[in-house]
Amino acid sequence: MKQNASAKLYQCLQVEERSRAEQEVVMHIVYILVSRQYSERIYIGLTEDISRRLDEHNSGKSAYTKKYGPWQLVAHITFSKKAKATEFERYLKSGSGFAFVKKHLV
């Protein structure tokens, strides 16, 4: 009986471990867009769903990008931690970060 209890406990732990592994991992994506019509227009953003967000930019649902569309995705980087993604987005929007984007990524 002691062996049965141990086996059941082990089985429960395996199920819990698989359950955690199967949970969806949320990734945070910092992305850079360039206007196809106005090539000097660059947009830097953060999202969890890059396809949906690009569609929103190109369909005029974003106030800032509405008048400069359509937009083309030129670069993106994915983070597992939102704080790191937010920090990187903030850097890219700073003077030196924006200079880096223009020199190396666009």
Structure, explained:
This protein is an alpha+beta fold. The chain has one domain (28-105): GIY-YIG endonuclease (3-Layer(aba) Sandwich). 50% of the residues lie in helices and 22% in strands. It has 4 helices and 3 strands. It has helices spanning 2-22, 50-58, 82-93, 95-105; strands at 28-35, 42-47, 71-79. Strands 2-1-3 form a 3-stranded antiparallel β-sheet. A hairpin with a 6-residue loop joins β1 (28-35) and β2 (42-47). α3 crosses α4 (95-105). The longest helix has 21 residues, at 2-22. The termini are far apart. The model has no long low-confidence stretch (mean pLDDT 87).
Task: Provide a compact summary of the structure.
With 106 residues, the protein is an alpha+beta fold. It has helices spanning 2-22, 50-58, 82-93, 95-105, and strands at 28-35, 42-47, 71-79.
Write the layout of secondary structure elements.
Layout: H1 2-22, E1 28-35, E2 42-47, H2 50-58, E3 71-79, H3 82-93, H4 95-105
Antiparallel strand pairs: 1-2, 1-3
Helix pairs in contact: 3-4
